[in-house]
Amino acid sequence: QQGVVLTDPREDPDDILRANRSREKTFVFDMVFDHTATQEEVYVSTTKSLIEGVISGYNATIFAYGPTGTGKTSTMLGTDCERGIFIRALGDIFKALEARAEDMDYTVSMSYLEIYNEVIHDLLNPSSGFLDLREDSRGSIQMAGITEVSTTNAQEVTQLLVKGKKQRAREPTAANGASSRSHAVLQVTVTQNSRRKDTREEVRIGKLFMVDLVGSERAAQQTQNRGRRMKEGAHINRPLLALGNCINALSEKGGSRAHFVNFRDSKLTRLLKDSLGGNSRTVMIAHISPARSCFEESQMTLVYAYRAKTIKTQV
Question: For residues 223 and 153, is the Cβ–Cβ distance under 8 A?
Answer without folding.
Answer: no
